[in-house]
Amino acid sequence: MNVTDKEIKYSQLQTNIEDSLQEDSAEHESNAGVYASLKITENNNTNGFVVKDRLLEKIMEKENVRVALKRVISNKGSHGVDGMKVDELRTYFNDNWTTLKQSVMDGSFRPNPARRVEILKEDGIKKRKLGIPTTVDRVIQQAIAQVLSPMYEGQFSDNSYGFRPKRSAHQAMDKCQQYIQEGYTYAVDMDLEKYFDTINHSKLIEILSRTIRDGRVISLIHKYLRAGIVIGYSYEETIEGVMQGGPLSPLLGNIMLNEVDKVLEQRGLRFARYADDLMIYCKSKRSAMRIMENTVTFVEKKLFLKVNREKTKVDLVWKLKFLGFSFYKSKGEARVRIHPKAIAKMKAKIKILTGRSFGLSNEERPIKLRRFIMGWINYFKIADIKTLLKRTDEWMRRRIRMIYWKQWKKVRTKFSQLISLGIGKSKAWEFANTRKGYWRISNSPILSRSLTNNALKKRNYIFFSDYYNHVNA
């Protein structure tokens, strides 16, 4: 179906919310009834559902929506199918808040379909499919998440670390390191195939309804699950999956996999989960194999998710990758290192940013490299990486020097640049006339004496080792 043939209600929901979010005080007593069926469709309104905890009122309360609006604006992000940008939100909320709230409360509100966007995964080859909701839908999803998150935090496992407040990948690695130190040196590396794209809606609704006692909220979430996706100019239904790209998706993903966490805890198993990355630690290969089969059966038969059996495996912890990290043993102690695949991805990114064909100016390149280096170090700083960083810096500086040597091209340009960098005229002329290749020259005295480390720093370049030492000072 062409999207122009489908009526898409572009809700105009923006506000100067600091001083004009009008609180609609009308109580929707008519929304009484019982959430009795999982077969909620896109055309259901919420009349007829039991309202036991008036959760929808909490979601659409003025202060909660104000916080949600600020969060969406601060996150910036791309527009949805309606083209509305985040900097337009305040005005539209101001003009349409009363109507919007009324439509959400009485069940007539319909989310817009998400806009399909594909981004490259870390390997630079495969693509991750995202669904970008409209900015208005992002505000409502954020408002829902802000109310539901505290409710579910008490239910979530201490071994779950992804997309939760005050929890991080570093904490997950600390837990794994603790297990290994205790002798759990085998692990089940569980791989869920296209997890977010394959979440069963009926099962998710069933799990949500155990905690959420306001059927109107269940209905609103289901509308978002079934809102559809626009790919180019075509509309597609979403009959399964939770669209990655909206504020509600991480929470819903955690709620579903919390079912796995509870089963593992009941069995007294050691595990760590970050979103859909799950590692279960065991003391023997035999027990790990048994646990893997039982867990796969539960995930597939009870949660209706798909397990990638080729990538799900049992092995020694030293051979497995978790969140880009791995482990090694030194003097009887389990220590954290970066997995070789993560190192390869880092080098591939550096190679792109220091390639002449990437299209960066000499002013832009240091900025891009700085951002990447700072983010990479802040994430991987818990690993033993000093030697790696030293080698990487030497290699990266060589590539940067090669860029400048290529840019100078002509003998006369090379001569003048070398003189400006402090090389004497006779030596500069000798160096400028060399016939050696670019890569060889990048590691020769010609450039190491002219484009020194300090000279590169003056051009706003930073290096891995320097920033690592800074954050660990």
Describe the protein in words.
The chain is of the alpha+beta class and 473 residues long. The chain is 47% helix and 11% strand. It has 19 helices and 10 strands. The chain has helices spanning 17-20, 55-59, 62-75, 89-106, 135-153, 169-181, 201-211, 215-225, 249-266, 285-301, 340-353, 364-380, 386-408, 411-420, 425-432, 438-441, 445-448, 453-458, 464-471, and strands at 114-120, 127-132, 186-191, 229-231, 234-236, 270-274, 277-282, 313-316, 325-330, 333-338. The protein has a 4-stranded mixed beta sheet with strand order 2-1-4-5, with no helix packed on it. Helix 12 crosses helix 19 (464-471) and helix 14 (411-420) runs antiparallel to helix 15. The radius of gyration is 27 Å and the shape is globular. The N and C termini lie far apart (59 Å).
Could you outline the blueprint of secondary structure elements for this entry?
Layout: H1 17-20, H2 55-59, H3 62-75, H4 89-106, E1 114-120, E2 127-132, H5 135-153, H6 169-181, E3 186-191, H7 201-211, H8 215-225, E4 229-231, E5 234-236, H9 249-266, E6 270-274, E7 277-282, H10 285-301, E8 313-316, E9 325-330, E10 333-338, H11 340-353, H12 364-380, H13 386-408, H14 411-420, H15 425-432, H16 438-441, H17 445-448, H18 453-458, H19 464-471
Parallel strand pairs: 1-4
Antiparallel strand pairs: 1-2, 3-7, 3-8, 4-5, 6-7, 9-10
Helix pairs in contact: 3-5, 7-8, 12-19, 14-15
